[in-house]
Design goal:
The complex is a heterodimer of chains A (244) and B (263). Chain A is α/β, with parallel strands linked by helices. Chain A has eight helices and eight strands, in the order βαββαβαααβαβαββα. The chains are: A alpha/beta (244), B mainly alpha (263). At the A-B interface, strand 1 and helix 3 of A face helix 2 and helix 12 of B.
């Protein structure tokens, strides 16, 4: 179960991120007030309250920059809300993006462990799945090679397999199936189906309206950090096309 | 804001395997493609100490073997401090891709750095200690059994300090360039290459403001003289390290949620 109560996220958007101590000192020596704004407050999420029950599969759609990914990051704990509370019921921490937490210098095998540990697993638990992961992603030959030498397709295959075989209780997907060849995508889709069946909560962010209709039981339309629509995926898609 | 150190440590311990994996893989990586591998962590310092020892024992006109021990013991612990401090500017900036994509307590990144260097230091130092005693330069003594204590408090000290420097660098990137210069200055400002008695009396009070003065003294005395240092030295080290450790954790707690917007 995931519950968000009045979640607001504000942050200062820096226009020029590389301002230095030197500039700061010089500016204050000259008693110069910043004539142009160097930062502005940005309201990424505006009083969002939702409750996602165990068997629900939530889709989130909206334009670029509407706050979809930010919402996902708040649920996963990467971002802490400025106000409001987030309660996520589930022992294992969610993965928002496959290949998040990969270290390109480490080998495929080391990354399996590193990723598993990041999601809260113990060495024994990962060891039990190691063979299955290597088998599914078809990377036996390359598993002890640093992943910086992998092709992007190979990386995606490994990342997807890790993300799905450790079966997190809460699934958060941000544009999950974007690469990999056709045969792998088919294999991946069926694996995703079983995973979704088992999960305690699923949240998917996507621009692919068909995917949302196919996978989700409920859909949010987000615009400028606010929930504009909350309901059935078909109606949400219609609302999105008509209003935004 | 309240800081509960036990809670912070428990939170980071949930991710102990992440730290383990980072540290072991990075250590393996460091020497992977070199012919001599891990042996470099021994050979590098040996050559370094030889070089410095030969030059400075000549300059200082002191007895070579005595000088070696003095210099080696001080440099070893100081190097642990300086590699960690020099790396601390990058603990958050350099881990941007993790911080933005997955939740990990920010202290994890600090511990990755400090523990990796700690292990490197312990291995390198122990090997040199054995080498020194075999070749007869060093006399092993019972007092050396207390050496883990200064290392432990040095560890707490650098964890706190790196947390602060890492945070500060997120806001002021210039620190990336400033920190190595400051540690270098601190190295020369600590009696390592020269003895404390060579410092003019009127400057001694400046030396005594430097926490590294005490840490080096605590660590070096058992090796150099086979005795324990003055009690006041130990008290100052323990107090400093606990204060810096707590302050570092407090500031980290206070600002950790802002880091992500500044990367």
């Amino acid at each position: 179960m995931i519950e968000l109560n009045n979640v607001t996220l504000k942050y200062r958007l820096l226009h020029d991120r590389s301002f230095s101590l030197k500039e700061k000192v010089i500016n204050s020596l000259h008693k110069r007030k910043y004539t142009e704004k160097t930062s502005e407050e940005f309201l990424a999420l505006d009083q969002i309250s939702i409750k996602i029950s165990q068997k629900e599969r939530l889709g989130i759609i909206g334009k670029n920059g509407a706050g979809k990914s930010t919402l996902l990051k708040v649920i996963s704990g990467i971002l802490k809300p400025t106000q409001g509370t987030v309660t996520v019921d589930g022992m294992i921490q969610p993965l928002i993006e496959i290949a998040a937490g990969f270290n390109p210098e480490f080998t495929g095998r080391e990354n399996i462990y590193l990723n598993g540990y990041m999601l809260g697993f113990t060495p024994q638990q990962i060891k039990a799945k190691e063979a299955e992961i290597i088998d599914f992603c078809e990377l036996e030959k390359f598993i002890d090679v640093p992943i910086k030498y992998y092709s992007s397709g190979m990386t995606v295959r490994l990342a997807f397999t890790i993300a799905t075989s450790i079966e997190p209780e809460i699934l958060l997907f941000d544009e999950m199936l974007s690469a990999g060849d056709a045969s792998f995508i088919n294999k991946a889709k069926s694996r995703l189906d079983t995973l979704v069946e088992k999960a305690k909560g699923v949240v998917i962010v996507s621009h692919d309206l068909n995917l949302i209709e196919q996978f989700c039981t409920r859909c949010l339309v987000i615009n400028a950090g606010k929930i504009e629509f909350d309901g059935m995926p078909i109606q949400a898609n219609k609302f999105y096309k008509d209003h935004l | 804001m309240k800081l509960n150190i036990i809670k912070e440590i428990k939170e980071v311990l949930k991710f102990k395997w992440v730290i383990y994996s980072f540290v072991s893989s990075t250590l393996k990586m460091r020497y992977k493609r070199s012919v001599l591998g891990f042996f470099w962590s021994l050979l590098g310092p040996v050559l370094n100490y030889l070089m410095v020892g030969i030059v400075f024992s000549f300059l200082a006109r002191s007895q070579m073997d005595k000088y070696f021990v003095h210099m080696f013991a001080g440099t070893a612990i100081f190097n642990f401090f300086s590699v960690v401090t020099n790396g601390s500017g990058n603990v958050f900036i350099g881990n941007e891709h993790y911080i933005k994509k997955i939740y990990l307590p920010k202290l994890t990144f600090v511990l990755n750095l400090v523990l990796m260097e700690l292990i490197n230091f312990i291995f390198g130092f122990t090997a040199l200690l054995l080498l020194g005693s075999i070749t007869g330069y060093l006399k092993l003594s019972w007092a050396m059994l207390t050496l883990p204590l200064p290392v432990l408090f040095m560890f707490l000290f650098v964890v706190g300090l790196s947390s602060m420097l890492g945070l500060a660098t997120v806001y002021f990137r210039d620190l990336l360039h400033v920190i190595p210069i400051l540690t270098q200055a601190l190295f020369f400002g600590t009696p390592i290459l020269y003895a404390v008695d060579m410092v003019p009396q009127r400057f001694l009070f400046i030396y005594k403001l430097n926490p590294l003065y005490y840490f080096v003294d605590w660590f070096r005395t058992p090796i150099y003289t086979g005795q324990l240092p003055m009690f006041s030295t130990i008290v100052i080290c323990v107090a400093t390290s606990l204060i810096i450790f707590t302050l570092g954790l407090y500031l980290l707690k206070k600002f950790e949620n802002e880091i992500i917007f500044r990367l």
